[in-house]
């Protein structure tokens, strides 16, 4: 594995979020009928400034939506009219954001600023700013093995994703250097290519201006809004269902596929691997939240799953088992085909990993903790447990693949 962590200065971060989410409430609504899903969808379109859908509206799945303070009464009326059951998970989202910022400040108190940090000095138990994270990865090795690709932080508000990818990367490196047999075995089977934080600009923005920003920071000229959902911008079934052509939507697909520098950079990397006849075996895009391991497809619910579905599901099962055995996390991790256990979305990295340039037999979206209690605002004290279950999940999956499908 060729990987370098260049961990830059720790800086004391003050809460720069202002009061953007003061009085905003997070609702969890039971959606059982197609009609209700449709109404919610329409309501969201008409009031995009007031409603932020943390999960997507699908019948049979709870829908989490953040409602701005001045829209709460109207929203509750709509729910009452439709006789929809709901609970309020957060009564004031800003309080939860402030608590997170305060804990982050406390954890950093007394730390020295340093330009370069040794791997063993990096504190994995807290969330880090963009400036603290820089991870130039270099493809290629003298004795090339099948590639396993991990990508974190495509959606900037999902902070536990880069934190987890950095944590388990650090753990692999540390344990490898200590000659731990599991780490030596894993890194002996595969080359790991790791992008801990893909959406750097979006992530930086979640630290400086808006904690709940999801998309990239690319300007959409003529529309007066910013951002592309990078997980709708890949050249796999781009422009289909579950992605928006509307530049102000949080699931905007881009004007063309791969028209953001982040998705382009990923594709360039896999183009180069292809030119060098490298095999990419596994592709995992780490997200939060919901505790799911999703296999292809996600672009269309009416087509058959891919020919590799049985082994994809079996390897995902091995990962879920290892994750659940590690910490017995409430609700557990569930695995399955994306369109079966989540919603439809096109231009996603998972479908790209399987069907486009990487051609990875095993391509997944993993949704980390939790099941909705904190959602994107997962407290920092859950980083290490999440990282640990993911570390063993990765080993469980890679062992399964090595034993059952290695060529
Ligand atoms: O919508 C997404 O991009 C992912 N969920 S998230 O809450 N992290 O934004 C899931 C995308 C992949 N899966 C399917 N749509 N089936
Ligand atoms: Zn995501």
From TrEMBL:
<keyword id="KW-0121">Carboxypeptidase</keyword>
<feature type="domain" description="Peptidase M14">
    <location>
        <begin position="82"/>
        <end position="401"/>
    </location>
</feature>
<keyword id="KW-0732">Signal</keyword>
<comment type="similarity">
    <text>Belongs to the peptidase M14 family.</text>
</comment>
<feature type="signal peptide">
    <location>
        <begin position="1"/>
        <end position="18"/>
    </location>
</feature>
<dbReference type="Pfam" id="PF00246">
    <property type="entry name" value="Peptidase_M14"/>
</dbReference>
<comment type="function">
    <text>Extracellular metalloprotease that contributes to pathogenicity.</text>
</comment>
<keyword id="KW-0482">Metalloprotease</keyword>
<dbReference type="GO" id="GO:0005615">
    <property type="term" value="C:extracellular space"/>
</dbReference>
<dbReference type="InterPro" id="IPR057246">
    <property type="entry name" value="CARBOXYPEPT_ZN_1"/>
</dbReference>
<keyword id="KW-0378">Hydrolase</keyword>
<dbReference type="Pfam" id="PF02244">
    <property type="entry name" value="Propep_M14"/>
</dbReference>
<feature type="active site" description="Proton donor/acceptor">
    <location>
        <position position="367"/>
    </location>
</feature>
<keyword id="KW-0862">Zinc</keyword>
<dbReference type="InterPro" id="IPR036990">
    <property type="entry name" value="M14A-like_propep"/>
</dbReference>
<keyword id="KW-0645">Protease</keyword>
<dbReference type="InterPro" id="IPR000834">
    <property type="entry name" value="Peptidase_M14"/>
</dbReference>
<dbReference type="GO" id="GO:0006508">
    <property type="term" value="P:proteolysis"/>
</dbReference>
<keyword id="KW-0865">Zymogen</keyword>
<keyword id="KW-0843">Virulence</keyword>
<dbReference type="GO" id="GO:0008270">
    <property type="term" value="F:zinc ion binding"/>
</dbReference>
<keyword id="KW-0479">Metal-binding</keyword>
<protein>
    <submittedName>
        <fullName>Putative carboxypeptidase B</fullName>
    </submittedName>
</protein>
<dbReference type="GO" id="GO:0004181">
    <property type="term" value="F:metallocarboxypeptidase activity"/>
</dbReference>
<dbReference type="InterPro" id="IPR003146">
    <property type="entry name" value="M14A_act_pep"/>
</dbReference>
<keyword id="KW-1015">Disulfide bond</keyword>
């Amino acid at each position: 594995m060729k990987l370098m962590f260049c961990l830059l200065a720790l800086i004391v971060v003050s809460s720069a979020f202002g009061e953007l989410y003061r009085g905003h409430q997070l609702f969890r609504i039971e959606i059982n009928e197609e009609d209700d899903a449709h109404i919610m969808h329409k309501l969201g379109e008409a009031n995009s400034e007031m409603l932020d859908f943390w999960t997507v509206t699908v019948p049979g799945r709870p829908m989490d939506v953040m409602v701005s303070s001045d829209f709460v009464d109207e929203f509750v009326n709509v729910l009452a009219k439709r006789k929809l059951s709901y609970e309020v998970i957060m009564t004031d989202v800003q309080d939860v954001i402030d608590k997170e910022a305060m804990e982050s400040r406390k954890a950093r108190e007394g730390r020295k600023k340093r330009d370069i940090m040794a791997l063993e000095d990096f504190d994995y138990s807290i969330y880090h700013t963009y400036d603290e994270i820089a991870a130039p990865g270099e493809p290629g090795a003298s004795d090339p093995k099948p590639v396993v690709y991990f990508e974190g932080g495509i959606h900037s508000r999902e902070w536990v994703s880069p934190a987890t990818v950095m944590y388990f990367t650090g753990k692999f490196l540390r344990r490898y250097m200590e000659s731990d047999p599991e780490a030596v075995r894993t890194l002996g089977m595969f080359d790991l290519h790791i992008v801990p934080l893909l959406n750097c600009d979006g992530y930086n923005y979640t630290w400086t201006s808006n904690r709940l920003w999801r998309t990239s920071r690319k300007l959409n000229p003529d529309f007066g809004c910013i951002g592309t959902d990078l997980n709708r911008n890949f050249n796999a079934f781009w422009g289909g269902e579950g992605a928006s052509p509307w530049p102000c939507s949080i699931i905007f697909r881009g004007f063309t596929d791969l028209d953001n520098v982040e998705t382009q950079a990923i594709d360039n990397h896999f183009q180069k691997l292809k030119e060098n006849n490298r095999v990419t075996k596994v592709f995992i895009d780490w997200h939060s939240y919901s505790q799911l391991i999703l296999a292809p497809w996600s672009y269309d619910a009416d087509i058959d799953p891919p020919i590799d579905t049985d082994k994809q599901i079996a390897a995902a099962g091995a990962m879920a088992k290892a994750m659940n055995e590690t910490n017995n996390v409430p609700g557990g991790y569930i695995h399955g085909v994306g369109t079966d256990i989540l919603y439809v979305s096109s231009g996603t990295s998972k479908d790209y990993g399987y069907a486009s340039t990487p051609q990875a037999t095993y391509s997944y979206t993993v949704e980390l903790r939790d099941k909705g209690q904190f959602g994107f605002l997962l407290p920092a004290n859950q980083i290490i447990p999440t990282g640990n279950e993911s570390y063993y999940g990765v080993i469980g999956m890679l062992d399964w693949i090595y034993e059952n499908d290695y060529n």
